[in-house]
Amino acid sequence: MMLMIAMFHSLAIGAEPSPADKIPSFNMKELPATEPVDLSLGPQLFIDDYLVAKMDDLTRTTHAPERYSDNPILGWQQGTTQPYLTVVRDRETGRFRMWYNRDIGPGGTVAYAESDDGMHWRTPNLGIMGDDNRLFEVSSSFQSGFGSSVIDKGPDYPDKSKRFKIAWWGQTKPRPDGDPGMRVAFSADGLHWTPYEGNPVLNDFSDGKLDDPRRPHGAGDIIDVYFDPIRRQYGVLLKTPAMPSDGLSTGAKASSYIRRLVSASSSADFIHWKDPWRVIIPEPRDEGVLEFYSVGGTFARGGLLIGFVRMLHDDYPAEPGGPAEGIGYTVLVTSRDGVHWERHSDIFFDRSPAPNAWDRAMTWVGCALPVEEKLYLYYGGYQRGHKIEPKKERQLGLAIMPMDRFVSLDASGDKKGGRLVTTLLKPASEATRLVLNADASKGSIRVRMLDEAEGVFPGADFSEAVTGDGLALAGKGLDLAKADGKPFRLEFQIENARLYGFDVVSVQ
Q: Count H helices, E strands: the chain?
């Protein structure tokens, strides 16, 4: 089970960000649902405890994706100086499209690449900023800029000129009177961009006084936006600094940030954003001087938002006994409301175990893209450390995993079996059937329906055993219509098998 999060501030937790003199943290364990879960939202995953009312003799296991054999997919020759990227698949052409940071320091840009399969990439000559694939600058002549976080609303989006939306961190005036912060732009084709005239949409206060109460409510220099289809709003997760009052030791390369933390915000229109609030902070379970480089690749599955937090240990060496130049890896974060976020304990995607590998020091996921029954995870890899040779040792790679197989509940072969009872569920419709995302190739899973008091619904006792390995395994003998529109629970008996989640599909 996940650990309950200890707060670093004895402040009241509310649904909205607090005033600048109060800094709550919304990083917490997701407790079981208190209201029936709506099954019409899509696949239901056992990543957190939200769907679990009771669980006996089961083990929760986090599953890592597999590295693509021909990594890196884009290298330093294409100017991959940062781990920040977005990949989308065009709904009309099927083509994969990538936006990534090219170059570093003053003059840094967003660049563009294309692919037919999401694996083999080409960098076209666009002629927009010269004879290459650059689109526009994210930095100025005096200050670096970072970010290439893109949302594609699709060809049916009403305002064609704003189908594509991008966010980054930058400024146009020198400090101390500058305008640093989160900036946005819009495009009809993803190539030609029009910056919003009111930029920045969120200000960055990180270079002010260390005790400035606005600092945690500003937009630091790592920006990751996403669209939340559950609440039909935009979200952003961004880097934010710690405060002296947090009592945290300073990171080795954190400077005035003390520690890099993560805050969140939301918006109805991509322009007007709520004051950010903290969501990812250090906790008692953490070892060393742990920091966070925002959360990449956030997307929705069923009623759950899933993201990938970039973990940083600037106090650790990439090679045993070597210099402590920093390592990074990726951990899952989830949210059921877009406000409260749970950082998971297990490493999801670790750095390469091979000495001197191109991604030996860092593996930071930046984008998650569903492709048929698989999930493509695009990430930035560093070879020797956090700040070493950024123009030659920061490259982009791909890892792949089966869809929705982040975490499983396992009953191993040395036990008689495990039992899981869900929280109350709300029927999607009368004409549906249950399918399981499970690996029961060496065992079996049986399911039955329980009422609110955990009595068996008439005629809905244990189904025929489900066997095999698949994302949508169907068993015979369980008719969800027997709930007659009433909330119900599912009880799973699992023998020598893994259960990742379930869904209901139409029988028509």
A: 0, 33
* C-alpha span between 314 and 321 (Å, rounded): 14
- Determine contact, residues 438/45, Cβ cutoff 8 Å: no
* C-alpha–C-alpha distance, residues 367 and 149, integer Å: 9
> What homologous superfamily is domain 37-60+407-506 in, according to CATH?
Galactose-binding domain-like (2.60.120.260)
CA pseudo-torsion sign 384, 385, 390, 396:
positive
Report the C-alpha dihedral over residues 438, 443, 449, 454, rounded to 10 degrees.
Answer: -110
Q: 404 — alpha (psi -120 to 50), left (phi > 0) or beta?
A: left
* Rounded Cα distance, 146 and 139, in Å: 7
The domain ranges of the chain are: 37-60+407-506, 66-402
Ranges in the chain, pLDDT < 70: 1-28, 413-416, 430-431, 508
Tell me: the pLDDT tens digits for 432-467?
889 999 999 999 999 999 999 999 988 888 888 999
For tokens 């819009």, name the residue. Answer: 186
Q: Which architecture characterizes domain 66-402 according to CATH?
A: 5 Propeller (2.115)
Give the amino acid at 288: G
| CA distance between the termini of the chain | 38
Tell me, yes or no, if the two domains 37-60+407-506 and 66-402 fold the same way: no
Contacts of 383 (CB under 8 A, 6+ apart): 318, 356, 357, 358, 359, 360, 361, 389, 393
Distance CA 88, CA 376 (A): 11
Per-residue b or e along 103-132, where b marks 16 or more CB atoms closer than 10 Å to that residue's CB: bbeeebbbbbbebeebeebebeebeeeeeb
